[in-house]
Amino acid sequence: MTSKIIGTGNYIPSETITNLFFNQHVFMSEDGTLLKEDNASITSKLQKITGIEERRYAGSGQVTSDLGLIAAQAAIEDAGIDPETLDYIIFAHNFGDVKAGTVQSDAVPSLAARVKHLLKIKNNFCVAYDVLFGCPGWIEGVIQANAFIKSGIAKKCLVIGAETLSRVVDIHDRDSMIYADGAGAVVLENSEDGSGILSHLSASHTFKEKDFLYFGKSYNNESCPDTRYIKMDGRKIYEFALVHVPEAMKQCLDKSGYSIDQLDKIIIHQANEKMDEAIVQRFYQLYDAPVPADIMPMVINKLGNSSVATIPTLLTMILKSELENHTIGKGDVVLFASVGAGMNINAIAYKF
Questions:
Q1: pTM higher than 0.90 for the full model?
Q2: Which of 111, 125, 222, 252 would give a disulfide with 347, using CB separation of 3.0 to 4.6 Å?
Q3: pLDDT tens digits, residue range 266-295?
Q4: Do strands 265-268 and 228-232 pair parallel, antiparallel, or not at all (unpaired)?
């Protein structure tokens, strides 16, 4: 027995932020000096590397749990279930609810508890909790839900991934242009028909890699001396991902019992277009095989990097036929993979 997805949903905020939005930003280096390049050159370079042309930001009246609620409602409706029958609500995020115009994170009560309350679920034995696992948090939540279902602890689980990264970025750091807001969710239940999760893998690299992503001070030391923002060592993350993510993907696929030529799609965390392409290229090199056309759908160019939300958002778009040239049909084998703060890596091999 394993678990399978019976409903999906997402929420893509309506506020579109193009690269022109950053034309008036004052970008600085880590030591607080102004970058020598003009903003047009900075945004152009970022687009070439990451593929990002646009990203979505949540409305000023929305917080992360609001986005997660909308995605959850859509997934529950798609599954056609009574919310009262849910045994677990698992909410993956990293920074809690941060209201627009503030810098304080609010994560008590848990975001999962807030969603359960807003869904008006009265069942006290529907357990609601949050997962903080970096960008791979949503996949990790699915892995945990699968364990609950396989063990008989649960029959139905709701797993949400939502984030408002636009609220925790340093506007003086050019990396702030990468981040976005969004939400995605799935409902899982037990499966005995051969479909569902075939295998999974998780790893945490912390001995040397713990601080590749971290919370740090603004590059503008004068105006923002005490506030901390999301920071990353992009070069180290890139090098780490290219070595370790393809290996993890291979281990996961090999455990599934399916071969590389039976793989129909790879849905990878939308972190950086060039990095994701390189990861998939190295993954196929491990099998001495060419990369098939249209194996890896990408939406980062229009949606940016919304952390835990990227994979469930993309999955929903494909299943709802909203992405040109990409479909998932019955019997298709899909490999999910993510990498992020920790440094954490995980993967799931799944048969639809």
A1: yes
A2: 252
A3: 999 999 999 999 999 999 999 999 999 999
A4: unpaired
Dihedral over alpha carbons 314, 315, 318, 324 (to 10 degrees): 30
Using the structure block, give the residue that is written with the tokens 């019992």: 257
Distances (CA, A) of 176 to 40, 237, 309, 310, 332: 15, 16, 17, 17, 36
Residue pair 156/125 in contact by the 8 Å Cβ criterion: no
Number of C-alpha atoms within 13 angstroms, CB side, residue 192?
4
Instruction: Copy the structure tokens of residue 204.
Output: 């945490």
> Which are the contacts of 7, defined by CB distance < 8 A and separation ≥ 6?
75, 76, 77, 78, 79, 80, 81, 186, 187
Q: How confident is residue 222, by pLDDT bands cut at 50, 70 and 90? A: confident
**Is residue 75 helix, strand or coil?**
helix
CA distance 135 to 138: 7
The answer to whether the beta carbons of residues 3 and 188 sit under 8 Å apart is yes
Report how far residue 347's alpha carbon sits from residue 311's, in angstroms, rounded to the nearest whole number: 11
| Contact status, residue 276 vs residue 305, Cβ threshold 8 Å | no
Q: What is the rounded CA–CA span in Å between residue 277 and residue 274?
A: 5
Cα separation of 290 and 197, whole Å? 25
CB 307 within 8 A of CB 178: no
Q: DSSP label at 308?
A: G
Q: What's residue 31's pLDDT?
A: 86
In sequence order, what are the beta bridge partners of 10? 184
Give residues with Cβ within 8 angstroms of 21, minimum separation 6. Answer: none
**With bands split at pLDDT 50, 70 and 90, how would you rate the model's confidence at 102?**
confident
| Omega cis (within 30) before 109 | yes
